[in-house]
Amino acid sequence: MSTVCSDGRTGGRVGADNPLNVKSIHKAFLVLEAFRGGDRHLSLGELAAATGLDKSAVQRFTHTLRAMGYLEQDPATRRYALGRRVLDLAYGYLRNHPLVERAAPILADLRRTTRERVDLSLLDGTDALYVFRMQSKRETFAAALIGRRVPLFCSAGGRAMLACMTDEEARGLVERSERPAFTADTRTDPVRIMAEVRRARRQGYGFQVGEWRPAELVVAAAIVDRGGAPVGAVHIAASVGEWKPEEFERRMAPLVKGAAQSISE
């Protein structure tokens, strides 16, 4: 089974020394990707430090990207931020992705039934990438946004997708991941993580409490392709302030499994 890496292709990231790589495009995307860490505004010096490019090159790229609408510049501080045109690409990707289109009505029904937050994520390297989110009663700003990445090792959807791989493949992804403790309950030891992956394999779904966000319950099931390889996951999330973990798992697991199976088919 091949692994889709963080650049969306099978195999490794295409390096600057690849003979097919257009170096100027590679450098322009280094500038855009400098904003992935959540920094809203960056100066030319900060962009140069983040990309490894010299300041004059960064100035040329930012000028071009700003003219095209992919960067915006604060007139007072002269610092740069991502521009609105970036959303056009995100819209085009989601609007034309067959899995997202197929999942949308199923997720809407699931949201009406559960009255909790329902998410769709795609497998992307060592992460689950959220591409569809339907909010519940109250959510933090970050939790409502698409494009959020969550590591496979500590997420219910991630473990559900890992469970569809062999132990060797799953453990390889876990060991390649950075495994910080996001909360006091985050499992970071590969042995403990693989025990949860095997549990997800036996049950047909992943379940975690407070490992990614404190006081959050998540149950998730993998979406697979025709060969049985994982491509994404359906998640149902709620608060421990409103649910006992055992009751949430018992009620939601059959629903999330059914939704994932319907999307897979």
Give structural notes:
With 265 residues, this protein is of the alpha+beta class. It has two domains: 63 residues, Arc Repressor Mutant, subunit A, CATH 1.10.10.10; 168 residues, Beta-Lactamase (2-Layer Sandwich). The chain is built from nine helices and eight strands. The strands form two sheets. It has a six-stranded antiparallel β-sheet with strand order 5-4-3-8-7-6, sandwiched between helices. It has a two-stranded antiparallel ribbon with strand order 1-2. A hairpin with a 2-residue loop joins strand 3 and strand 4. Helix 2 crosses helix 3 and helix 5 runs antiparallel to helix 9. The longest helix is centred in the C-terminal third of the chain and has 20 residues. The N terminus is likely disordered.
Largest sheet: 6 strands, antiparallel
* Biggest β-sheet: strands ordered side by side in the sheet: 5-4-3-8-7-6
Estimate the strand proportion: 15-25%
Task: State the secondary-structure class.
Answer: alpha+beta
CATH class of the largest domain: Alpha Beta
The CATH fourth-level homologous superfamily of the largest domain: GAF domain
Helix content: 40-55%
The name of the CATH architecture of the largest domain is: 2-Layer Sandwich
Overall pLDDT, averaged?
90
How many domain units?
A: 2
| Radius of gyration using CA atoms only | 20 Å
